[in-house]
Amino acid sequence: MQNPHILVIKQLVIEGQSGSQWTPIVKGIDLTLKKGEVLGLIGESGAGKSTLGLAAMGYTQQGCRISSGSIQFNGMELVGALKSDLRRLRGNRIAYVAQSAAASFNPAHRLIKQYAEAPIQHGLMGFAEAEQKAVDIYRQLLLPDPENIGYRYPHQVSGGQLQRAMVAMAMACQPDIIVFDEPTTALDVTTQIEVLAAIKQITREYNTAAIYITHDLAVVAQLADRIMVLRHGNLVEESDAREMLADPKEDYTRQLLSVRTLRDGKALSIFDRDVILEVENASASYNGSDMVLEEIDLSIKRGRTIALVGESGSGKSTLARVITGLLPPSQGRIIFDGQELPGKLADRDRETLRRMQMIYQMPDTALNPRQRISKIIGRPISFYADINGREKDVRIKELLDMVELPATYMDRYPSELSGGEKQRICIARALAAEPDLIICDEVTSALDQLVAEGVLQLLQRLQAELGVSYLFITHDLATVKAIADEIIVMLNGRIVDAGSARCGLRNHCPIGQGAASTLIIGVGLNGRGKNKLPHLACLLTRLRRCVNGPIQ
């Protein structure tokens, strides 16, 4: 009788090297996967999800090794297999979608060339055929201008668009198994739903099996047939997706399913009228002609949090670049603590740099892979506070403790950390400067729910103690509800709605009336983003429901 499982993993033990010692990080896991089945792997950062997903390809990261167990793909044993045999499988019959597309694409090559590389290398088709298939799959994944987007370079598309291009690249050879490692992390809510639907449709159409690694239980609910919960390299619980979501058996699983409720009605402070940052009529362009930001006005009060939300490519991260001086505005002013700032980062003084820090969306590209964690966190301590030696080491340990990482991580490299751990290092580096304003660009998007909640609690505690302000760029509505005092919605480089977290974005809210409402109508009339209006309506509805409950 033919084995119904295309992938069978038995008693797999994977070890990671720390110094001269090897420590188990995946501890005797069994896993099976049928053709056409979607298996969800969930758990907190460092649970072993990505390590197990990569092992399905017979691959381990540098510093890891398979010490025992079996991995069989379609009857072929991958543990101990020849490298030439594994190369014929990877990218062809087993594909992988990484968590960070920005770190995975070659910045020197166009997207279409990188899409075509795998099918050409495996002898499946020529470039012309691959080119046409790329357009088809770009269209299925709802990428804008599918006929031409493939001829852009990775830096010329948004983070969400780049992530979808990577999903397309994984599907180029129509593999038997695709390992999805947090592929919707960088996407806004409405795009995330559409991409998940496209992934589900494509996997069903080609009867492709998938391992879907995520910390987002809402994603699992929409996509997975079966769920495995991991923690510290052990299997906690496994069952049918609907059964687990309806009736989880283990306490840890119930914690993962818990709803984030951090914001508790922050009391008004003496700083409420003290504005730390103002953006006045700011517009910006990457090429000098096509505006990517237009007439942006916003202010952030000391000790408060503004959530900046919007679809992928709406201009959220670009606005952050303008504020920090990475992209000088073509018009308008940036005023920080009452002083107008130079448009270029290079023209700003050291004290301004210290007081305004940024935490980036992609920790893989924000951390130097050749530097140890002690040097990454220690550099701003030396640069801004002129602290060195033993005193600096003590401060580094304090910062690691603040972001819930052990002091032993000082001697590690970024490649030895999970995605969530890397993001916490980025947060610790920003805190090292003791800033007044932190721009958080999707800082919790790579974290599982429990770790993300801890990070948000940390940020709130720091805000209460230090009066630090946050500009929180996010597509996670649970984060908006948990941490925001005010909400700003962007579309096509413009602010189209705004409101306080208390009164929301309803029409009767004073902040949501007037110019914002007129602008939404204007966007529809002049054709800018005309096709995006349904998505915006969906986003606004979700925001209103998330913050205030169902609309009456």
Give an overview of the whole structure.
The protein has two domains: 5-257, P-loop containing nucleotide triphosphate hydrolases (Rossmann fold); 274-507, Rossmann fold (3-Layer(aba) Sandwich), CATH 3.40.50.300. It is globular. A hairpin with a 2-residue loop joins strand 19 and strand 20 (494-500). It has helices at 49-55, 83-89, 101-104, 111-121, 127-140, 159-170, 189-205, 217-223, 241-246, 251-256, 316-324, 350-355, 363-366, 373-385, 389-402, 419-432, 449-466, 477-483, 515-525, 533-548; strands at residues 5-18, 21-34, 38-42, 64-73, 76-77, 94-97, 177-181, 209-214, 226-231, 234-240, 275-285, 291-301, 305-310, 331-336, 339-340, 356-359, 437-441, 469-473, 486-491, 494-500. It has a six-stranded mixed sheet with strand order 6-7-8-3-9-10, with helices on both faces. By secondary structure, the protein is of the alpha/beta class. It has 20 helices and 20 strands.
